[in-house]
Model the fold of this input.
Amino acid sequence: MNQVTLTDFHLTMQVMDNIDAGVVIIDKDHTVWAWNTFMQAYSGITTEQIMGKNLFAAVDGLPVEWLKNKIASTFKLRMRSFSCWEDRPSIFNFSNFSPVTGGSALMYQNMTLTPLKSLNGELTHICLTITDVSDIAKNKTHLRESNEQLTHLSMTDRLTQLYNRGHWEACLAEEFDRCKQTNVPSTLVMFDIDHFKKVNDTFGHVVGDGVIREVSSLLRRAKRHSDIAGRYGGEEFGVILPGTTAELGLYFTERLRGRVQESSVAVDIRSVTVTISLGVCEWAPWMRNYEQWLELSDHALYQSKKNGRNQTTVYAVEGCAEQDVIKEKALG
Done:
């Protein structure tokens, strides 16, 4: 009988030591009863060093409170539990030696906690099974990053790195609906580069692209993080200023206009300077849809160009229902 028991134990230990996963058996006091070859190889702690020792005293870097809670919960519920690398990348601080995932120094791990019963049926121990999922994690992380990059590219204008027209207009539609629901002010700014065709005709499209990039860079630096900027088409841009009145929007446009006027793009030994014309329109409850909001902002922009360019015009919506009243603010 003893021979059969020893044989069974010997066979079990061989399986544990050759399985491609970490196996740790602990009791309710967290004393280690089994520590297989996988755990020895990655931890550098031999079976002789850890058997009969407290797991948390013998192994550094464990998420102590979290793991103790998982163990206690498994004992209490008397059923298997699981931890995924996406929730907690690792439990044991093991290095990753996989050539496939050489870019990551960390071994990503899944962990299964299995309650074990003694011969009398009492639940006395728990088996922690640690699985190396670094390859899966690396592939999934790479896929997620690739999808995020594709999503970014699909809504970004390549030349300016602002939102492209499709995505920006979708944001404008969402902002219009939000204003309808909350009645919170929001302001739309449309602007374009003055005499841009002349820049292209005189200096060529490469310089024209440089001018667009410079204006876009100034726009990104001038706007708040919450503001939504996009290239509407050609040399025309749109900016949504959430939670902003037209009066405050005017400060933004005049600051941007001044910065553009003071900037330049180098062309050989010369430099090209440009100006911009801007139209500002605050959302109003009587507006039918975001297209009308956009149309009124464009109307204000047209007035700026008609009045001599390099200025801002604000469409006056206060107390005017839908009549076409334009309040001109040529500040400079």
Summary: Residues 134-154 form the longest helix (21 residues). Confidence is low (pLDDT under 50) at residues 319-332. The chain has two domains: 2-141, 155-329. Residues 2-141 form a domain with the Beta-Lactamase fold (CATH 3.30.450.20).
